[in-house]
Amino acid sequence: MKPGTACLCGSEHFDLAFRYDERPNGEVTFDFSSGGAYRRDVLCCQCCGHYLSVHDMDMSSLYSAAYVSATYGADGMRRTFERINSLPADRSDNAGRVERIAQFAGKYFGDRVSSLLDVGSGTAVFPYRMQLRSGWRCVALDPDARAVEHARTVAKVEAIRADFTKVTDLGSYDIITFNKVLEHVENPVGMLAKAARHLNDSGLVYIELPDGEMAVEGGKDREEFFIDHHHVFSAASLMILVRQAGFSTLEFERLREPSSKYTLRAFLRRSAP
Ligand SMILES: [Zn+2]
Prior knowledge:
Layout: E1 14-20, H1 31-34, E2 40-45, E3 51-55, H2 62-72, H3 76-85, H4 93-109, E4 115-119, H5 125-134, E5 137-142, H6 145-155, E6 158-161, E7 173-179, H7 188-194, E8 199-210, H8 212-215, E9 231-232, H9 235-244, E10 247-256, E11 262-270
Bound molecules: zinc ion.
Zinc ion is lined by residues 7-9, 11, 45, 47-48, 50, 237.
């Protein structure tokens, strides 16, 4: 373990959950993990059950370009978009997400909702389907130029190329969504906290995170523990993330999705000042 490794909750006491001496089955091969020795530990916080992935491989340039290439390949985004779009609703994680958000927003806002920002939109299937379902203005945000071009030309949604943690001129939205995004960054608290600046009054945030507490039973090859996830959450660490970022939880649930992913999801609002 690196000296000074600390959990979101502040604890520095961990158990070793998994040790990897080679790339686990199914994990994407990134440039940085394909040469030299593969050595990585997944640690579990003794206090809150949060998981941290700890290694010395350099991931600094991952999301600028390599992630799209490694994950989708040439023209893979369009094919992935079409494949996910053609799934029947009962086999689509995205269809479940769209319905859940539409249902919650209807209850929470009535008809007073008109805009949504999806941070880390990737294939843009979600903003595309959400916009079709709801009629809201759904905006995709991604740091990758190809993802943004794909969102505009294939998904035909408004799209912004930006690093969400740095961008300032975003405007504000009724709903901001982080669908399996916060686990990919080293500082999920900082990223989530920034959403408060871009929410309308009484706006909502929706988060989805990998559920380590459920996935751990499936062993070290579960995708929840793959190298692109710095963090894998527990119910307790989700609550800690939310509070530290200045939000409170309106509803929280855990589910196993049609794809077999174990997922935590929650609707949030800004905490009272
Ligand atoms: Zn902890």
